[in-house]
Amino acid sequence: MRPSPETDxxxxxxxxxxxxxxxxxxxxxxxxxxxxVAGWLGFGLAGALDLTPLVGVCFRHYDEVCRALGVGxxxxxxxxxxxxxxxxxxPVWHWTFPPGGDHAPVASSLxxxxxxxxxxxxxxxxxxxxxxxxxxxxxESLLDFERARKLAIIHVLNGNAGAADEVLAEERExxxxxxxxxxxxxxxxxxxxxxxxxx
Length: 199
Prior knowledge:
The protein is an alpha+beta fold. The protein is 51% helix and 18% strand.
């Protein structure tokens, strides 16, 4: 049985990525950086053969807390950005692979962009202390639905339980009267967090 066109594209991308140290792990690629830090690369698939790359950074100790608390998707980055947003004046948001064609040139172009623009983003964010300072100093850089969760975990990992409590309390107050999916999910997270770190 012949692989799907999407599989052909991902195989071409995987082959082009090998020299960079990115290794496929299911639906994403990781580039181990040592000390529990890894670069991350994932793709949004638009249409049949358009890939939109996202780059990010993962931290093992952060992932372990998320896994213990049952939040997030294992192996997803603490921070990430679309590759196109890192490319300056002439961004490329997606790479289109020709159906039934030679995918190697497009895959090579995509990987060149990952190396030129994605790896500096990973380098910049791969240092835990400086990333934590940036995120706690500018919490609005995190998305609304993830801000309180990520900041609370960051604070507790850095030994600042008081700051974690403040973040949790502020968000609990903000969603106190809400009954939507996020508010219910957040309250469940806050309860598990307090059991794990205050129990």
